[in-house]
Q: What sequence folds into this?
């Protein structure tokens, strides 16, 4: 692959932290973040700073449960096992405002200072953070190909996505579905490379669009709002109505029959 695949700074960094819903429940100022169960919340100052929260949950199985799980037994976590309801928080900001490093011992204080004019509930949630970490968002130019002979890339390795579209994992699943259609059991070694070219043609336009939408969503700068490629509601319609499996089936059928259809077209014209 001849593309320049070196990551480039996107100009935005993020603070990230987790807070337990138990801690939030005890703080009346932060409680709005858990009053609507299962909701994603986005705060945006229309100048580059964003604050995003959503619930996440993981279950730590007690040691006695592993044997039952591994042997196909059904395990249902009780309240004592799953007291790990968490809220994940992401604070994104232009690097023109601050450039904290991952080893900065005062990340929480830097975050609070950077968001000192945000709403009280946002700052209340930030105050509850035990550990704050920071990541610099990086971008990579669109690749012209994802495959070489019989090897290929999928997901973020092929088309890395900034977090603004929330589609990184979903697009990897669509890649896998496409490859499942194009490379079924019985595919011969000689068929693999041509099928991977179909895979790229199936997926390229869609993932490039999502990449560009993600970039447009994150390009706000202090004092200047940059409009995304399209309204988020319209974007969601495009994203969630797509059937990657059916699209791959049509693409494969076209490739397998286009010579026959071209011959039929010649006959009809003649």
A:
């Amino acid at each position: 692959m001849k593309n320049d695949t070196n990551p480039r700074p996107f100009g935005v960094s993020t603070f990230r932290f987790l807070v337990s819903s138990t801690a939030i429940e005890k703080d009346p100022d932060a409680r709005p973040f858990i009053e609507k169960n299962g909701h994603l919340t986005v705060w945006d100052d229309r100048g580059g700073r964003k604050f995003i929260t959503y619930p996440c949950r993981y279950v730590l199985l007690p040691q006695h449960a592993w044997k039952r799980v591994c042997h196909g037994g059904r395990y249902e976590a009780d309240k004592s096992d799953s007291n790990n309801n968490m809220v994940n928080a992401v604070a994104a900001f232009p690097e023109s405002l601050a450039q904290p490093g991952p080893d900065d011992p005062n990340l929480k204080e830097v975050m609070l200072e950077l968001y000192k004019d945000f709403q009280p509930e946002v700052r209340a949630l930030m105050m509850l953070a035990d550990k704050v970490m920071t990541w610099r968002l990086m971008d990579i130019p669109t690749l012209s190909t994802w495959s070489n002979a019989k090897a290929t890339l999928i997901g973020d390795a092929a088309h890395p996505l900034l977090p603004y579209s929330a589609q990184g994992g979903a697009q990897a699943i669509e890649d896998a579905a496409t490859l499942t259609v194009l490379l079924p059991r019985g595919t011969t070694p000689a068929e693999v490379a041509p099928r991977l070219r179909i895979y790229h043609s199936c997926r390229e336009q869609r993932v490039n669009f999502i990449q560009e939408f993600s970039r447009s969503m994150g390009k706000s700068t202090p004092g200047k709002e940059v409009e995304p490629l399209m309204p988020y509601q319209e974007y969601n319609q495009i994203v969630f109505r797509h059937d990657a499996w059916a699209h791959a089936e049509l693409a494969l059928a076209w490739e397998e029959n286009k010579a026959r259809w071209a011959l039929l077209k010649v006959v009809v014209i003649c």
